[in-house]
Write a structure and sequence with these properties.
Low-confidence stretches: 1-35, 41-45
Order of helices and strands: HHHHHEHEHEEHEEHHHEEEEEEEEE
Shape: elongated
Mean pLDDT: 86
Number of strands: 15
Distance between the termini: 21 Å
Radius of gyration: 22 Å
Helix content: 25-40%
Number of helices: 11
């Protein structure tokens, strides 16, 4: 399955900005009228007013249980303290913090799901310790500084439609010196892959004649342009498709990273292929780490780990390249906000495979596709 398509959000989006097409390929990085920030925020928060997104998030056991364990393991730092939950959604993380002994939790949520969070908090008899504050983090006011910030801010490829800027704003304005941030670190990884699904789709056109007596093999080149396009595709990647050990290309320390630095998150990568195969895409994923002394807790979206709703971000190459044992795949990668919407991410990759000359390609998540985080 491809990245979840929120039809309601797509309809709203189409009323705001016309979708431009070029050779059938849609990209956020193409030139079009830029949405003002209010329109961007309206679309973003409106997408979280439906139950489907929150159902998907709570049902993601890796995500939800890791946060629960991280909060409980930090109970000594939370007990009797004040917590700020940035982008609280249904309030589940706020309730975890209250269960860990927090004296007060300020749960800030800008979308209308905040109304449901009020009911959930009341149902769990925690309204005396959890305050649901409906509004954006940048515009609300708190009665006191906080000891802990908790947030599930990560988006696809870590930064697409993420709330990290709001977390940093909260850190700088509301967190006491020496306060705790959950999670406290994020890391980005990349690896070459052989995506068999795309290969099967391309090979399909060569099988039509055998099935129906009509030669449609000329469709292969057209199909390649459509499939191996500039879209960031969010799909699960199987371990068998990964062709090298992962290469870490970026790390974000949430105690020190700045909003200015998020305008360009970049790094280099170098991977040695396991054996003979074909590289037709690069795969990007992330981890976030919760503080925990000698054994910090890590939430991983790696294809080598149990699948999460974030899956992995797939960047298709224009042409597949055959590789052998120890063929080097290397280059540089830069993640930055789209010029049309600061909440949408673009990924530019310069890469070389073996002896082939350096190639460049820029990717983005297509319009109308929804980020699914609470």
């Amino acid at each position: 399955m491809h990245l979840f398509l929120d039809i309601r959000k797509c309809m709203v989006f189409s009323n705001v900005i016309a979708v431009e097409q070029k050779e059938g390929i849609m990209s956020l990085c193409t030139k079009k009228r830029k949405l003002d920030k209010n329109a961007q925020d309206h679309l973003y928060f409106d997408s979280y007013s439906d139950v489907t997104i929150h159902e998907e998030m709570i049902a993601d056991h890796v995500r939800t249980n890791t946060y629960r364990m991280a909060i409980m393991r930090s109970s000594s730092a939370i007990e009797g303290k004040v917590v700020l939950d940035v982008g609280a959604g249904t309030g589940v993380l706020s309730i975890f913090c209250a269960q860990a002994g927090a004296r007060k939790v300020y749960a800030v949520e800008a979308s209308s799901i905040a109304d449901q969070a009020v009911k959930i908090v009341k149902l769990n008899k925690m309204e005396d310790r959890i305050d649901i504050i409906k509004g954006t983090l940048e515009t609300i006011d708190l009665p006191e500084q906080v000891d802990v910030i908790v947030s599930e801010w990560m988006g696809y490829a870590l930064l697409h439609e993420s709330m990290l800027n709001s977390v940093l704003f909260a850190r700088d304005k509301w967190l006491k010196p020496g306060g705790l941030i959950l999670p406290c670190k994020a890391e980005l990884y990349i690896s070459p892959i052989n995506d068999l699904v795309s290969e099967d789709r391309l090979n399909f056109w060569s099988t039509v004649k055998g099935q129906y007596g009509v030669d449609m093999s000329c469709m292969t080149d057209f199909a390649r342009k459509c499939i191996m396009n500039n879209d960031i595709t969010v799909n699960p990647v199987t371990v068998e498709d990964v062709l090298s050990h992962p290469s870490k290309f970026a790390e974000l320390d949430l105690y020190t990273v700045t909003a200015e630095q998020l305008k360009s998150v970049k790094g280099t990568f170098s991977c040695d292929c396991f054996g003979s195969s074909t590289v037709n895409a690069l795969c990007v994923w992330f981890t976030v780490t919760f503080p925990g002394g000698d054994k910090p807790l890590v939430l991983s979206t790696s294809p080598f780990k149990q699948e999460t709703h974030w899956k992995q971000a797939i960047l298709y190459l224009d042409e597949p390249v055959d590789v052998e044992q120890d063929t080097k795949v290397e280059g540089g990668i830069n993640m930055y906000p789209s010029a049309e919407s600061s909440r949408h991410i673009c990924i530019h990759v310069d890469y070389s495979i073996g002896q082939l000359k350096m190639q460049s390609k820029t990717f983005s998540i297509p319009e109308g596709y929804s980020e699914s985080q609470p």
